[in-house]
Hints:
- By secondary structure, this protein is of the alpha+beta class.
- It has one domain (27-160).
- The protein is 39% helix and 31% strand.
- It has a seven-stranded antiparallel beta sheet with strand order 1-2-3-7-6-5-4.
- The longest helix has 25 residues, at 136-160.
Amino acid sequence: MNRSIFYxxxxxxxxxxxxxxxxxxxxxxxxxxDNKKSPKSYQYSVVQTGDNYNFKFDTSPADNKSKxxxxxxxxxxxxxxxxxxxxxxxxxxxERARCYVFDSSFHTYxxxxxxxxxxxxxxxxxxxxxxxxxxxxxxxxxxFLPVLLVYGLVFYPRKNS
Length: 161
């Protein structure tokens, strides 16, 4: 009985330790350096929810240009992809969220800002989510070329025999 309690406690402690070690920092800081004299910094947090990453800023940047820069910073902080274009290629509205599309070498990123229309006390809240979708270059290099290579290695020697 004592041995089983010891193993249960050891399992619980090791689970807690492993989850604490594997958890990454979800607090980030965006510094808007448009004003060279007094750059403003904004704290935000990121939470992964399935394929999406939700972000929430403590305070909202003033204008739309600063919000887009902050969103680009969120994309860079989460995905760490140096090939993400700094300007968005298109924008659209999805379920009342204003979304922007950023392209990169192998992925397309979607950055969506959620509206604050339904909460009077959180009118200044700046939050949203980002997603990553593979584009055609990723599909060609990671899927179609290996399939074509396997097909060639399996069926080509048989036809020439």
